[in-house]
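so i finally got all the pieces together for this one. its two components total, 468 residues if u count the protein bits. some of the lines might not be protein, just check the labels. i wanna see the whole assembly predicted at once instead of chain by chain like last time, that was a mess tbh
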Amino acid sequence: MNQCRSMIVFLFISLFSIQSFAALNIAVASNFKVSAQNIAKKFTHESGIEINISSASTTTLYQQILRGAPFDLFLAADKKHIELLVEKDKVGSQKEFAYATGRLVFWKPNSDVVPTQQDFMQYNDRLAIANPKFAPYGIAAKQALEFIKKWQSQTYVKGNNINQTYQFVDSKNVQAGLVSYASMIQKKRTHFVIIPQDWHQPIQQSGIILRGKNTQQAILFRQFLLSKEIQNYIKSQGYN
Amino acid sequence: MLNAGDYQAIWLTLKLASLTTVLLMVIAPPLAWWLARSQTRVRPFIESIVALPLVLPPTVLGFYLLIAFSPDHFLGQWWLSFHGSTLAFSFTGLLIASIIYSLPFVVQPLQSAFIHLDKNYLEVCLTLGYGKYERLYKIIFPMLLPSFIIAGALGFAHTIGEFGVVLMIGGNIPGETQVLSILLFDHVESLEYGQAHQLSFILFAFSMSVLVIIYGFLQKRQQRVLNA
């Protein structure tokens, strides 16, 4: 009997200790996943705080958070969904912060030469873009195409997010696409041209600390993410 | 209420499911017959390939198809040389994917019906001097009609519910590859919950009706057989 009781006490204690050493849960928009993993590795190395990264499209993560997904921090691919979370009072007293600005590129891997802006303007085959209804890079792609008055005349294949758009072009099922600069750097691609920043609204990627169990650790991670060293690293990964 | 895009997706989904079912009803019966009767050593191998879509995540099928459809590979190259456009992101591409994806749902009910078909009936056919086709139309088909109906209905319903494969090789093109399940996902991702609710309910009501009809039919037939 006594043994049984101490067993139960032991189990409870171990459960609570798991709780208190729980890792920091971060929800990351899929386009930033690889960079976030590298940053998390450095952070864990320096602070000893473990990090779990969950990645999906910004909207999917947003909807999971609305319904109580246990994330401590949310790194979105845009500003809109962070503002929506603030509006719906899901974040407590924390303020949003910008951690990266995405860049759009025109990528045409099978051409002999590196494409120019002119090539992009003259391209009239099917173009892969992220879904302009909800994907941040898709919204920017639509704005850029509207800016050069090509939106109506072009035909599109729409990826569910920017990574799928990359995959459509990479598998050669589409000849060219508007993808992220970060994916070009990550995969060491060369046949692309950067879309000028004034052709579309900036793809400002924002984040926010959520009402989680690990607010203190989340604040430490935010400080680390916004530190000069890490911001320089993010820039080197294809963000402005 | 529903807008033009929603109606277009409903029509496209019905078109895809109907065409898939018709083609499967041509492909599946001979295949099921062979699987039910053949004694060759390759049978378990073929049987497994047919059953694979039941077990594999649709993403695996979608990923392989995306690779197969690309101009780098035989199938995609061959198609491109004939039609001047790629198989991926086209209705034909979806049709091919749906046939593979729904194949086990049509083959398996037929195969089990063929296995359980009493040998005596086939011998009667012989004594009556029926040829191969007469045997099929006069004995096998009328006797196993319920199995054919169930196989067709399952294939149709399963194609309506297809999502993962289409998400990977569809490219979300309205009127071409944007089927109901994809449009629904699109609405949810765009936070358009009203439209998402409507489409979800349509899919739910449709699937429920199909299943009730199938099981109702089975029950009636069972009663008839028991009372006979």
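Chain A has two domains: 2-101+203-236, 104-194.
Chain A is about 45% helix and 20% strand.
anyway lmk what u think
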